[in-house]
Design goal:
The chain is an alpha+beta fold. It contains three helices and twelve strands.
Length: 229
């Protein structure tokens, strides 16, 4: 009887309830997306490092040297500014292009010359072009080639009062400040390997004496052009 009473007074909780499992599955899509982004980032960083290492090794082995351009002669036989702001000009240049590299040849695909006075462009000529006066060509290692561009014609130039004053001053001196800028598309060659086209720019700050009736008030001095990207 006591055992029955003890049994009746005891707490009864029924059968154990199994733990409930969430019906929601983990967001595997988001996790996979993060994995893909992480993998792509690793691949990108690795590619950048490899490219940088390749460029560094290439530079160590090849030791590329910048091309050297000089204007060795200039002939200016006409440089007149009319009252209606038209500039009449006749400028002939002798430009040398030197490839100082020991291992690299150079393909000149395009060389374009632009002439400026007081920041105003007054002439553009194709020096090297497929249809230009000099067809595209290959320059061997440690060799020099010559270009002979001619800027001739007339063009409208809009000069301010200060620029016109400078023009009149140089007219009295017989020597003009003319800037010639070179735009180039070239390809380097290392053995049989020829990478893609690269663009180079050159700036030639010239002091050119005006020649009148075979005489001039000064002598043109060879001018080095600054070549960069």
């Amino acid at each position: 009887m006591a055992d029955a009473k003890s049994h009746l007074n005891g707490s009864y909780y029924g059968p154990s309830i199994p733990p409930q499992h969430s019906s929601q599955r983990p967001d595997r899509g988001r996790g996979c997306g993060r994995c893909i982004l992480k993998t792509l980032l690793i691949l990108f960083v690795t590619a950048v490092i490899l490219v940088g290492l390749a460029i560094f090794i290439f530079w160590i082995i090849v030791r590329p040297t910048n091309l050297k351009f000089h204007v060795v002669d200039a002939s200016l036989t006409q440089f007149n500014l009319t009252s209606d702001n038209y500039l009449h000009y006749d400028l002939a240049l002798n430009i040398t292009a030197r490839n100082p590299n020991k291992r690299l040849g150079v393909y000149y695909d395009l060389v374009e010359g632009k002439a400026y006075y007081e920041g105003q462009r007054f002439a553009t000529v194709k020096i090297v072009d497929f249809l230009g006066p000099v067809e595209r060509f290959y320059q061997r290692k440690k060799t020099t080639n010559t270009f002979n561009p001619v800027f001739k014609g007339q063009n409208l130039v809009l000069l301010g009062a200060d620029e016109i004053s400078d023009f009149n001053s140089e007219k009295c001196k017989g020597v003009y400040s003319i800037d010639v800028k070179l735009n180039m598309r070239i390809r380097y060659r290392l053995g049989d390997f020829i990478p893609g086209t690269v663009k180079r720019k050159g700036t030639c700050d010239l002091k050119v004496p005006l020649e009148t009736n075979g005489t001039s008030k000064g002598i043109f001095r060879t001018t080095r052009c600054h070549v960069g990207w």
